Request: fold
Amino acid sequence: MKHTTIIALLSGPDQPGLVSMVSSWIFSRGSNIHHADQHKDTEANIFFQRVEWRPSGDIKEESTAFKEFASQELGMEVKVALSTDLPKIALLVSKIDHCFHDTILRFRAGEMAGQIACVISNHKSLQKAAEAYGLPFIYLPIDTNNRADSEEEQLKVIQSYGCELVAMARYMQILSDDFLARLALPVINIHHSFLPAFAGGKPYHQAHSRGVKLIGATAHYATADLDEGPIIHQDVTRINHRNSVEDLVRKGRDLEKSVFAQAIRLHLDNRILVYNNKTVVFD
Reply:
């Protein structure tokens, strides 16, 4: 039988004895640590830790008590979650469907600690596919004259479904600063790793004409700075002179699927701490 565990993510100024104080607090309650990992940014003097343990008593009471201990006595920023938490996710899509299908199938296979609550799109191309998966599909067209209204509707939908994460499965629209600020939720985006070398349209065509030897994909948190949010996960694959543009697109899409899935998984497993536009990923 798999027992529910408490997961805590801590970050703050480094000080002597932090690891000992955390483990001693857990031990003093008769609880048992399953896994612990930590990292120190020596330049910024910031301490990071992820610790997971099986509580000895009431899980909610122990979670609350630890959060108070870590914030008040240790002066740390802390997030506490349970291993059984299943956050709801809003999936944003346009017309490109490889990340859309792959992500949904991974959730259906039980690979992700969460649930897709709804699919939102600015096109109707994937409506039948979403409905075939049994997912609510919300069509919200966007043009230059109604962008603010569409974003307002997006916010209402995401909030009405109680979503805690937004995943952009090749959603080909820029999220405005106002939208991100009002959303106040993490947003994961996926794109090729050519930026800034091959910005703009047809990046794989540009890369092919330049004769690159590596292509890749990057998943990051979306911020007000376009494509410059904290990077969560990346991967690359080699190509050569025999590969056509179609080969690059195919290989790139394979990478995008796996990198996007891994980023979502890491987030839902509470393995990411963000600071200074960077991430510490406890993998």
Summary: The mean pLDDT is 94. The chain has two domains: 6-82, 88-281. Residues 245-268 form the longest helix (24 residues).
